[in-house]
Amino acid sequence: MTVLVTGATGHTGRHVVRGLLDAGADVRVLVRDVAKAPADVEVVQGDIADLTKAAQGVDAVYLLWPSFDSEGIERALKPLEGKKIVYLSAMSADHGGVWGDVEKAVEKVTDDWTFLRVTGLATNTLGWMDQVNNGVVRGPYGQAKRSLVHERDVADMAVEALLENHSKQVYLVTGPEALTQAAQVKIIGDALGKPAVWEEQPIAEAKTQLSQQMGAEFATSALGYWASLVAEPEPVSLDVAQVTGHPARPFEEWAGEHFS
User: Fold this and answer.
1) What is the pLDDT of residues 52-88, one digit of tens each?
2) pTM over the 0.90 mark
3) HSE of 140 in the Cβ direction (CA atoms, 13 Å)?
4) Partners of 146 in the β-ladder
5) pLDDT tens-digit readout, 145-170
6) Element (DSSP H or E) covering residue 31
7) Which residues on neighbouring strands pair with residue 136, listed in sequence order?
8) pLDDT over threshold 90, residue 96
């Protein structure tokens, strides 16, 4: 079996590659910079906007769509018609947005799809690194409770879905518990061996900052979502355990691996 991995140098993709190789699959990766490509794989240089070359002869695809909008998705997916596609999606896909749009586009090109709907990746907290080192992380909604997932759990789910029959399955991929953002900061500080606390950021300031990074529409959506998590935490799913055979890795384990 030959599997194409997009985003192969990223947080989840590199673990997907390793898991597939360990399982004996032939792996092809699509990368922009061949110097960063993983070892022991077939390498295709290019961009996800044109998968024509990369998709030739593969049986399955791990799909990571890197944009905050779905423009160009239909053209990008055309070479994947009839192939197995495992797409790294998000819990909010049911409500539309880029993740929902990509899911619909995938369903149009194949009946053999699996959607891994992630609440949030623990790796996103790496953006706090500089602030944690200074002892204070400043952001909005410190009491928002998130069930962040370890990237290796996502990869384990993806490898299972790519190599076995999980056709037309939607999985909710979460960590084992929902923690406030303030608690996450404390755990990271503990892993570093230095105290770290959360400082609440005014919403208007946070919106301006996020808008500059991700666009105004995405910033408004993100802030509204985080606000909702103060009263209603992100759900905790058992799908990781049921699909992979092992429980979801706790945030403390992730922090120890990345910050210690």
Assistant:
1) 999 999 999 999 999 988 999 999 999 999 999 999 9
2) yes
3) 19
4) 179
5) 999 999 999 999 999 999 999 999 99
6) strand 26-31
7) 197
8) no
Instruction: Indicate if the alpha-carbon torsion angle 5, 9, 10, 14 is positive or negative.
Output: positive
Give the pLDDT score at 213. 87
Query: Per-residue DSSP letters for 114-164?
Result: EEEEES-BGGGGGGGHHHHHTTEEEES-TT-EE--B-HHHHHHHHHHHHHS
Residues in the chain: 260
Backbone angles phi, psi at 140, to 5 degrees: -90, 150
CA-wise closest residue to 185 among 201, 206, 164, 202: 201
Token pair listed for 150: 């370890």
User: Is residue 1 within 8 Å of residue 60, measured between CB atoms?
Assistant: yes
Please state the φ and ψ torsions of residue 77, each to the nearest 5 degrees. -85, -15
Domains delineated in the chain: 2-118 (3.40.50.720), 122-150+175-234+249-260 (3.90.25.10)
* Angstrom distance (rounded) from CA 242 to CA 169: 13
* pLDDT tens digits along 211-224: 998 889 889 989 99
